[in-house]
Design goal:
- The complex is a heterotrimer.
- By secondary structure, chain A is an alpha/beta fold.
- Chain A has seven helices and ten strands.
- Chain A has two domains: 2-124, Rossmann fold, CATH 3.40.50; 137-218, Regulator of K+ conductance, C-terminal domain (Alpha-Beta Plaits, 2-Layer Sandwich), CATH 3.30.70.
- In chain A, the strands form two sheets. Chain A has a six-stranded parallel beta sheet, with helices on both faces.
- Chain A is elongated.
- The N and C termini of chain A lie close together (6 Å).
- Chain B has one domain (9-136): NAD(P)-binding Rossmann-like Domain (Rossmann fold, 3-Layer(aba) Sandwich), CATH 3.40.50.720.
- Chain B contains five helices and six strands; from the N terminus they run βαββαβαβαβα.
- Chain B has helices at 17-28, 62-67, 83-96, 112-117, 125-136; strands at 9-13, 32-37, 53-56, 75-78, 101-105, 121-123.
- In chain B, strands 3-2-1-4-5-6 form a six-stranded parallel beta sheet, with helices on both faces.
- In chain B, helix 4 links the parallel strand 5 and strand 6.
- Chain B starts with 8 loop residues before the first strand and ends in a 9-residue tail after the last helix.
- The mean pLDDT of chain B is 92.
- Helices cover 59% and strands 12% of the residues of chain C.
- Chain C has ten helices and five strands, in the order βαβαβαβαβαααααα.
- In chain C, strands 2-1-3-4-5 form a five-stranded parallel beta sheet, sandwiched between helices.
- In chain C, helix 6 packs parallel to helix 8, helix 7 (141-154) runs antiparallel to helix 8 and helix 9 packs antiparallel against helix 10.
- The radius of gyration of chain C is 21 Å and the shape is elongated.
- The model of chain C has no long low-confidence stretch (mean pLDDT 87).
- The chains are: A alpha/beta, B alpha/beta, C alpha/beta.
Chain lengths: 223, 145, 222
């Protein structure tokens, strides 16, 4: 599974970085030659110099339905066509569309049915979480230039970690549950704390452990 | 009081050579025409007798289309020189504003399938030129075997 | 025949609105800016049923026109037609009394609806006079007076608003005198004011019978 970032510049760089740190497979498509050169020099990602609004380009990128696509150009009309191509022609469902003009929000979400419409502010703080269960998992913040990630995971009844003591849950070393909220008062758990459905876990982790933490606490695999 | 037949409410996006010509033709015919362009200088392309409305604005912002009262339009023509802009205008017209007839110019033939998927009627300059050209080329005499 | 005024600096817009109004059977006059319109509206024989005006025009714009009319204590049903770009001028226009606002681009149907709205708001002199008389009889003076002041604005050269004002003042005087138990000829201030209005009515139209009759009636009594 790979993440395709179509268009954009600074925003693309930051997002690519964050995703690469999470050990995800990133493909960047951009029609600006200079940007492409900068990206390929400084990022561990596949860079394709092409116009993502053309069907040929997406074909060249070898997109599969299970991949994730993020349309990041500064023009809403370009992001729209990239997203619709991805959804209708390449049969993807994990498509994220950057909305530059907030006035287009209702049209994009309610009328044109784009599954995930993100605003510029979400983008700037790399605050989007591209995991498959966006309602349960949220990346709240990155610290130290993305070297530490703060996540928030809500425990569902069907979570594999449900009703287990924290010490018995197979969280990787490098991830720690700092707080649990959702009960009376937020509190700092210890090894004996039993994780209950409805608990909101605040986890600090290394970005590259993100997917593993999600899998252990929600059962959902990202790869 | 004589009752006249109801005229169409037509919105044309893009006042280039094609847009301005069609705008003139439709307004001469008596339709209620609104033409939108990013740059008001392009309205100079319009014929002098054009009796419709000229709106300077960005058609990729839904606000502009609301201002143009697109929900009242019977016909929307997306005639800018950018396929992506035409696609957005067309899709928004069809799905967002329920316009009956939406026609878009599409320069790159590779983009045609996507427009068709959304039932947006298209005119493709390349295909039209191809058809017109082929019709001007007579058949060569073939040797009867 | 019923007449409307269309004020807009764009010939196209003038033509469009005029076409729809003429199709509906109305007579149409046009002006290209506020100044021209003001002259036409303040003319002696001006009797427009209503007005369509643009907001932005060179020279005197739509708001300035409305303000000028207000200063001359003249008003008529008004529809503002303009591109929607800022909210503030529109709010002020509503404060100055426009009936509604049509944004460009518009369809003939929108113009037709606007005309219907204006017709509903037309104050009919005769009907309103009867209404006012009824209100005076019931001693509903605040209501009666508010209708009378509207009539003053709409029909400044008619004797009727003055006459009605006189009736209202007379009725109020009678009521006051009853309460105070006085009928002293010198202490009837409202009646004096009423007399002045009757005289004003006759000054506007010396043949106005109701006013001359009333005046005679009061003079005979005192």
């Amino acid at each position: 599974m790979k993440v395709i970032l179509a268009g954009g510049n600074k925003v693309t760089f930051n997002l690519a970085n964050a995703l690469i740190m999470r050990d995800l497979n990133v493909v960047i498509i951009n029609k600006d030659r200079e940007l492409c050169e900068i990206f390929s020099r400084s990022l561990k990602a596949t860079v394709i110099h092409a116009d993502a609004t053309q069907p040929e380009t997406l074909k060249k990128a070898e997109i599969f339905p299970n991949d994730i696509l993020v349309a990041l150009t500064p023009m809403d009309q370009d992001n729209l066509i990239i997203s619709q191509l991805a959804l209708k022609v390449f049969h993807m469902d994990k498509v994220f569309t950057l909305l530059n003009n907030p006035r287009n929000k209702e049209m994009f979400t309610a009328k044109l049915h784009l599954p995930h419409v993100i605003s510029m502010t979400d983008m700037l703080s790399s605050n989007i979480d591209l995991s498959i269960a966006p309602e349960e998992v949220r990346t709240v913040m990155s610290f130290e230039e993305g070297k530490i990630e703060l996540m928030q995971i809500q425990i569902q009844p069907d979570s594999p970690a449900c009703n287990m003591a924290l010490k018995d849950i197979d969280l990787p070393t490098g991830a720690i549950v700092g707080f649990i909220s959702g009960r009376q008062e937020p509190f700092v758990p210890n090894g004996e704390t039993e994780i209950l459905p409805g608990d909101l876990l605040w986890i600090m982790t290394l970005p590259l452990l993100h997917s593993e933490v999600v899998e252990v606490l929600t059962g959902i695999k990202n790869k | 009081m004589k009752k006249t037949a109801k005229e169409w409410y037509v919105i044309i996006v893009g006042c280039g050579r094609l847009g301005s010509k069609v705008a003139g033709a439709l307004s001469d015919r008596g339709e209620n025409v609104v033409i939108i362009d990013l740059d008001k200088k392009n309205f100079e392309h319009l014929p002098p007798q054009f009796s419709g409305f000229q709106m300077e604005g960005d058609a990729t912002s839904v606000d502009t289309l609301k201002e143009a009262k697109m929900e009242q339009a019977n016909l929307v023509l997306a005639l800018t020189d950018d396929d992506n802009t035409n696609f957005m205008v067309s899709q928004v017209a069809k799905e967002g504003f329920d316009v009956n007839l939406v026609i878009s110019r599409v320069y790159d033939p590779d983009n045609l399938p996507l427009f068709e998927q959304f039932q947006i009627k298209t005119i493709s300059p390349m295909e039209l030129a191809h058809d017109a050209l082929m019709s001007k080329i007579p058949h060569s005499p073939k040797e009867e075997a | 025949m019923a007449k409307y005024l269309v004020v807009d600096d764009e010939m196209n817009i003038q033509k469009k609105i005029r076409a729809t109004l003429e199709e509906m059977g109305y007579e149409v006059n046009t002006a290209s800016n506020g100044q021209e319109a003001l002259v036409m509206l303040l003319a002696q024989k001006a009797d427009f049923w209503g007005m369509f005006t643009d907001l932005r025009m060179p020279g005197m714009d739509g708001l300035a026109l409305l303000r000028a009319l207000a200063e001359e204590r003249k008003s008529l049903p008004t529809i503002m037609v303009s591109a929607v770009r800022d909210i503030e001028p529109v709010v002020e226009a509503f404060q100055l009394g426009i009936l509604t606002f049509i944004s460009k681009p518009f369809s003939p149907d929108e113009i037709k609806s606007a005309v219907e709205l204006m017709n509903q708001n037309r104050i009919d002199l005769k009907e309103t006079s009867n209404l006012v008389k009824g209100l005076i009889e019931q001693s509903a003076f605040p209501d009666a007076d508010s209708f009378i002041s509207k009539l003053f604005q709409r029909f400044p050269s008619s004797p009727i608003p003055h006459f009605l004002m006189a009736l209202s003042l007379e009725a109020r005087q009678n009521k006051a005198s009853l309460l105070q138990g006085q009928r002293n000829a010198e202490e009837l201030p409202l009646l004096d004011a009423a007399k002045k209005h009757l005289k004003a009515a006759l000054a506007l139209d010396e043949g106005y019978e109701p006013a001359s009759r009333k005046l005679r009636e009061w003079e005979e009594r005192s």
